[in-house]
Amino acid sequence: MGNWAASILRSWSIPVGRIGNAHVRVHLSFLFLLAYVWMTDSKPLGNAVYGRGLALVGLMLASVILHELAHGLVTIHRKLPVRVLVLMPIGGIVLVDESAEPDHDTGGEWAVALSGPFANLFVAFITGSIVLGLIPKAALWSSPLISSENLLRSFVWINFALFAMNLVPAYPLDAGRILRSTLARRTDFVRATRQAVSLGQMFAIALVLPGIIVPDVWNRWLMLVGLVLFLAAQLEHRAVLFQSVLESLRLEDVMLTDFAVLSPADTLEDALNKAVHTLQDDFPVIRGGDMVGVVSRQRIVEELRGEGNGYVQSAMNRAFQIAQKGESLASALRKLTAQRLTLIPVVDEGRLVGIITFQNLMHSMRLLAESRRLKNGK
């Protein structure tokens, strides 16, 4: 998807499909959670802990999916931009796809945010009622509330815990998103996100400390939640910051100004010879000062192999978009990804002054990410 924040997560999450208009990945923190369940419940359950622990983590993942399905239904209704959704034990980490228009609708985020926790409350109420009605001896109120020893009771309390936890105004929990929306009415979106993240991280630290000082079972659960919350806040904050960079930078800041062009009258062999002496993968095709098409190095090779030596005109793609040099980097990325283009010519008053290719755009984004990391490290 070309998303910088999502690319960081690829080594820590695996793709599982889609929910609504979101590309869904499961974070590997579920594996750490599974290891913790096996460790804490191994004494009372023995070897049975492996299967029951896996079932407990599966119920946690199912509860998070239900939570995010509710978000997804509201997101579809509101036609929000396509997103990357990373499922974590506290809920979903939402990473906006920078190829889509940024969504800063502070009022509409209330409906999206509240749908998830109340879906969990509904599931907890229905499941709890069924358990109490059909299994009176289910000991729904017995401690520990969440344990692989009693999966039915755990499923009820997992959903109630997701409901209660996401009503805490700690970003990126759902109430934290509402807090960010409220702050964004009085300041810019990035600053509001930074303030909400700071509060969320303070809350995460407050959860971690009891588990360090008094490491009983309950406090260790809180510590795990705090660690995941801290990580989630950092990831979403970086995604928002990078999106703001894409919106603020102009194409004239990153476009290639030293580039090779081809003529439609060039032979494919001549074009390939030119391609050998440049790092470009895609070339504008110019006739009399006007751009008439785009051709890639790969297309040139394919035509030579299939049809023999012909002319660039027969191999070029006549469908292309242009961009003004004052447009944002995010705008260029939207154009590239929307129509799966590989090159966009950049013009100034009708004159070709540069090109943006997907390759150099990704390279520029990586350099920008590194630049911000170095600046923040000083």
Would you give an account of this structure?
Helix content is 58%, strand content 14%. With 378 residues, the chain is an alpha/beta fold. The protein has two domains: 4-248, no CATH class; 252-377, CBS-domain (Roll). The two termini are 31 Å apart. The model is unreliable at 1-9 and 98-102 (pLDDT under 50).
Specify the overall morphology. Answer: elongated
Radius of gyration: 26 Å
- Please count the beta strands (DSSP E, at least 2 residues each): 9
Largest sheet: 4 strands, mixed
Structural class: alpha/beta
The average pLDDT score comes to 79
**N-to-C SSE string, H for helix and E for strand:** HEEHHEEHHHHHHHEEHHEHEEH
Strand content: 5-15%
Count structural domains. 2
Spatial strand arrangement across the major sheet: 1-2-3-4
The share of residues in helices is: 55-70%
Ranges where pLDDT stays below 50 over 5 or more residues in a row are 1-9, 98-102
Compute the number of helices. 14
Q: What is the CA-CA span between the terminal residues?
A: 31 Å
